[in-house]
Amino acid sequence: MDKQILQAIRQKQELGVTLLLEHYGGLLNAIVRKYIAGRPQEMEECMADIVVAIWYHIDDFDATKNDFKNWIAVIAKFKAIDRLRKIERQQTTVELPEQLATTQDVELDWHTILRQLPQKEQEIFQKYYFEGLAAKEIAQHYQTKASWVHNKLSRSRQKLRTLFLKDEV
After folding, report:
1. Residue ranges of the chain assigned to CATH 1.10.1740.10
2. Which positions fall inside the RNA polymerase sigma factor 70 region 4 type domain (predicted)?
3. Alpha-carbon distance 153 to 29, whole Å?
4. What is the Cα–Cα distance from 121 to 8, expressed in whole angstroms?
5. In angstroms, what CA-CA distances link 133 with 126, 139, 144, 148?
6. What are phi and psi of 84, to 5 degrees?
């Protein structure tokens, strides 16, 4: 069956897609559902992305390195992860009301806002964003790795974002 599917898709015959979905549709759907459960429209679009990726990259498949089922499963997994990231990015993007976006005289009191963070995170946030120190320099100050600093900055931004969304500041 795999040979038929491969041959049809390589010859750009729509029958290949039909056979692919009849034979492996359940597997692909299960993989997508693992990452994007509860979002039928997103799942459908992800399945379409998977089929398109298989269609256009069929010549990249090498039977000596992998079997067809595993190859399409990997494509499905990464397309589903990409779609999930896209969904998460869209959810974290907050649109400001037009009044707020056009107001010139809005000034934030960063010292008050940063007090919502633990002391160490306040210091790291100030050094990085206000003093312009590199993560590597801050890491040396705390005798740790730059990745730790980036992790602290990311968590701080997330905490501040949550506070802004709750209007607690």
Report:
1. 2-92
2. 110-160
3. 37
4. 57
5. 9, 10, 15, 15
6. -60, -45
Q: Name which of 101, 102, 114 is nearest 159 in CA terms.
A: 114
DSSP state of 129: I
Judge contact between 29 and 72, C-beta under 8 A.
Answer: no
Q: Which CATH number is 108-166's, of 1.10.10.10, 2.60.200.20, 3.90.550.10, 3.40.190.10?
A: 1.10.10.10
Q: May I ask the CATH class of domain 2-92?
A: mainly alpha
**Does the pTM of the predicted model rise above 0.70?**
no
Eight-state DSSP code of residue 1: -
Q: Where in the chain is the domain with CATH 1.10.10.10?
A: 108-166
Quickly tell me which residue has 């990464």 as its tokens.
78
